[in-house]
Amino acid sequence: MQIKQLPADFQAALPVLKKIEQAGFEAYFVGGSVRDHILGLSIHDVDIATSAYPEEIKEIFKRTVDTGIQHGTVTVLMGDDSYEITTFRTESGYQDYRRPDKVTFVRSLADDLKRRDFTINALAVDKDGQVIDKFDGLKDLDKKIIRAVGHAEERFHEDALRMMRAVRFQAQLNFKIEEKTAQAIADNAPLLAKIAIERIREEFVKMMLSQNWQTGLADFIKLGLSEYCPGFKDQKLELAELLEIKDTEFVDEEAAFSAIGYVLSLNHQEFNAFLRDWKVSNKTREASLNTLNLLHLFESQDFDLWNIYKLGVDNLDRTIELSKMFQIEFDYTNLKQKVDQIAIKSSHDLQLTGKNVCEILDVKPGPIIGKSMSQMERAVVEGNVSNNFDDLRHYLLSNQ
């Protein structure tokens, strides 16, 4: 197959390929960018593989950065652009099921491609647009199949995270995992326990935020990967409740985790521990906790403007979307209008400060200041007083 019109990102990088070839070496576009272009998807990163060794690349180009030179990767700077150039390599010895014990630089493109995870990612394109396909990746793209390069079990023993990548690609591309590859995932799922949760979370979140997330999640559960993730052991039936949601995407990571907390019936303390086990950021953890709390309030129909405000107005749209997912019915539009009319987003927006309270009440700093500020904040949120200095001063004096 020949790509008649290289995408703009490839064309911009052509001078890099040509310069490497002029020095007597081979160079190709490889990996996900090739796959995505053939599928008609937008390209995110342009990866280049070459027969030139790192030191040879550094001799060819004046401006380089040793990005991952021990694994053969050098970043080449050209104008305002940068390109990662990786030497063809073979790998061996994967005692931690993640990183190779030994990396050997080679001159053969075929040897480099055979170490890659899936056939659809083992494609290369030369400067003329000719596609090099050693493992029938083009056929698998056409059939919408995710198939391991060579023996699937070997690929997963080399890097157990590839099993998560399989279900992630499944969700992103709406592909099916080929039978032998799926069986190898099921057989080797316990190896996932050896992978850092941060790496697993990255793939899991990408899967859950994909358009076809149910496709990936279904095999994530079916093939046993869920059993080796925090909080998911023996929870297949509960997680499968998410598969009943139709034609809906999660707006963000917080929505996905909140939905999981909901189907697992986690209380606040349990959900907090769950999120810590997944090592999400503090910002994500706080937003997810407040979203799930808000979802539970909506479910019980036990909420008012004050508790919505305290749980974060910024979490409202996310919670409404989740309520629709789980068929929790109430007048979303009316509630949204009321919340939009709240004059402040936080106590920092009040037009009267703690110092003002001290002066108005002629008191020294102490518990009364916090109590007074909280009273005014709630009164503003509930629309009982306007957020301007004179009205707040009058309210403060009238409620002592």
Automatic annotation (TrEMBL):
One of its GO terms (biological process) is tRNA 3'-terminal CCA addition. It catalyses: a tRNA with a 3' CCA end + 2 CTP + ATP = a tRNA with a 3' CCACCA end + 3 diphosphate; a tRNA precursor + 2 CTP + ATP = a tRNA with a 3' CCA end + 3 diphosphate. Mg(2+) binds at D45, D47. ATP binds at G32, R35, R116, D159, R162, R165, R168. Its EC number is 2.7.7.72. CDD domains: NT_ClassII-CCAase (cd05398). Keywords: ATP-binding, Magnesium, Metal-binding, Nucleotide-binding, Nucleotidyltransferase, RNA repair, RNA-binding, Transferase, tRNA processing. CTP binds at G32, R35, R116, D159, R162, R165, R168. Gene3D superfamilies: 1.10.110.30, 1.10.246.80, 1.20.58.560, Beta Polymerase, domain 2 (3.30.460.10). Residues 250-392 form the CCA-adding enzyme C-terminal domain. GO terms for molecular function: ATP binding; CCA tRNA nucleotidyltransferase activity; magnesium ion binding; tRNA binding. It holds the Pfam family tRNA_NucTran2_2. Residues 174-233 form the tRNA nucleotidyltransferase/poly(A) polymerase RNA and SrmB- binding domain. It is an enzyme of class 2 (transferase). Its cofactor is Mg(2+). It comes from the Bacteria. The keyword Zinc does not apply. Residues 27-147 form the Poly A polymerase head domain. Homodimer. NCBIfam families: PRK13299.1. Belongs to the tRNA nucleotidyltransferase/poly(A) polymerase family. Bacterial CCA-adding enzyme type 3 subfamily. Catalyzes the addition and repair of the essential 3'-terminal CCA sequence in tRNAs without using a nucleic acid template. Adds these three nucleotides in the order of C, C, and A to the tRNA nucleotide-73, using CTP and ATP as substrates and producing inorganic pyrophosphate. tRNA 3'-terminal CCA addition is required both for tRNA processing and repair. Also involved in tRNA surveillance by mediating tandem CCA addition to generate a CCACCA at the 3' terminus of unstable tRNAs. While stable tRNAs receive only 3'-terminal CCA, unstable tRNAs are marked with CCACCA and rapidly degraded. A single active site specifically recognizes both ATP and CTP and is responsible for their addition. This is CCA-adding enzyme.
